[in-house]
Design goal:
Strand content: 15-25%
Number of helices: 6
Structural class: alpha/beta
Number of strands: 6
Largest sheet: 6 strands, mixed
Oligomer: single chain
Strand order of the largest sheet: 2-1-3-4-6-5
Helix content: 25-40%
CATH topology: Rossmann fold
Order of helices and strands: HEHEHEHEHEHE
Radius of gyration: 16 Å
CATH superfamily: Vaccinia Virus protein VP39
Distance between the termini: 37 Å
């Protein structure tokens, strides 16, 4: 349904990766309030439960009490102070997580107008891998991809060649 209206290739690649690993019969708990990508998942047949906007650094009640077979966090972990505690409280065995990667030519993002729109973490791929390993997950599949922007300049040029996003599918180690 959304095939021709993706705002960017990130949604297209994320949906393809999701379909590769998760069936529509599984229920997804998506970290974050309803958003454009949770709507894309629903339009593609997935049952999606979103968190309610609570501060999951302090309150993991939803993670502990909802019934779900897959946990997703798409570009959310960089905003959290404590993603380790979030992963410790995930009750399912399958997770998909994507992060914007730390770029040597761009500082951590912080909005000048929205106090909640900022990145506490700027991950490198190995840091997310280690976080998953320490919380009992094994990475089954991963991809990195670029995110070009329609601007002129040295940094926009680098975005054509430098991977910006890291997407992983992992399962809990039994």
């Amino acid at each position: 349904m959304y095939e021709k209206t993706y705002p960017n290739k990130r949604f297209k690649l994320t949906l393809e990766f999701l379909k590769k690993h998760i069936t529509i019969s599984e229920t997804i708990l998506d970290l974050g309030v309803p958003n454009p990508f949770s709507k894309i998942m629903q339009a593609n047949g997935y049952t999606v439960i979103n968190t309610k906007g609570e501060d999951v650094d302090k309150d993991q009640t939803t993670l502990q009490n909802e019934t779900y077979s897959v946990f997703t966090a798409f570009e959310i972990f960089e905003h959290l102070l404590n993603p380790y505690t979030v992963l410790e409280n995930v009750t399912c065995d399958k997770i998909l997580i994507s992060i914007p990667m730390r770029l040597w030519f761009s500082a951590a993002y912080r909005s000048k107008t929205d106090p909640w729109d900022r990145h506490y973490h700027e991950f490198e791929d190995w840091q997310l891998d280690w976080l998953l390993e320490k919380t009992g997950f094994k990475i089954i599949d991963r991809i990195q991809f670029t995110h070009p922007v329609k601007k002129i300049g040295f940094r926009p040029l680098l975005r054509f060649f430098t991977p910006r996003y890291y997407l992983v599918y992992a399962e809990r180690v039994k």
